Amino acid sequence: MSHTAVLIPGDGIGPEVAAAAQFVLAEAGAEIEWVERHAGLAAVERGATETLPTETVDAIAEHRVALKGPCTTPIGEGFSSVNVALRKRLNLFGAVRPVRSLAGVSTRFSDPGVDIVIVRENTEGLYAGIENLITDGVVTSLKVVTEGASRRIARFAMDYALTRGRRKVTVLHKANIMKLGDGLFLRCCREEAAAYEGKVEFESRIIDAGCMAIVQKPEDFDVLLCENLYGDVMSDLCAGLVGGLGVTPGANFGGDHCAVFEAVHGSAPDIAGQGVANPLALIMSGVMLLRHLATSTGDAQCNLIADRIRNAYNAAMIAGEKTRDLGGELGTQAFAEAVARNLTVSG
User: Fold this and answer.
1) Which of 127, 196, 230, 313 is labelled catalytic?
2) Of 325, 330, 327, which is closest to residue 340 (Cα–Cα)?
3) Of 64, 172, 234, 316, which alpha carbon lies 20 to 30 A from 127's?
């Protein structure tokens, strides 16, 4: 079965890792017709008047699925985040970021290993972006928490755990201090989780204590349910347990059945064009894309191809065929070719 998906190469190292991911997917036998659109600085450089052109958003809305490279977000000035804007405009309310220990990537947490999924509310919280300059030297940032969005992400996380055989959902919060905002989020999560009693275990932890516990014994955690800012921070913290952002994929799901798959890492402009970036995170995001297509279209072949790619990059890593950030010597395309060579072995 042939499928159509939008490709957003992105900025910085984005085009390099996106090309590598496309190469691996094609070599594995995935029949995907790519509709290329642009966002971020890449869109402006091509003549767009905004960093998130309407034609890009419309293409994703039409085809329902996209693979997205990293887009640059200026720090403290300049245009607002393309990633945040895309999630808002397409109502991509639920982010899923799996973090697991990989064979061939040794960290101090490799034994007994890490297997955690972060589920993040994508549309509100402090990332609502509502900031005001009250007077010189005084700024307020408004944290938005609604019952509707809180219940929606809670159900999403519990359903995710149930359908994928996960054992426990842990909600992270700061309701001891932010009693109204985080209090509402926690209450909604508890009430929605009650419907899954006996099927999926549910617990709550204060965010700072939870961070300490995750670093001490990550094996005690399974699915982390977080509001927007906490989910962003926890994604990077957990990525550090398994080797960094170069081995961490991500996906964003929406109420209109849209799904955008992306690497968690940034655009890394300092190494752009050098051919040294690690494309594994976006390749892994491509695997998530295939699994989504298998579920959404009924094409079981997509799952088989996803398995082949996963087995192939695992085999490459075990053989020491890694990029420099993981202690290897391979460049971006050379790593993609190493994965492709292992497709035959893993298949």
Assistant:
1) 127
2) 330
3) 64
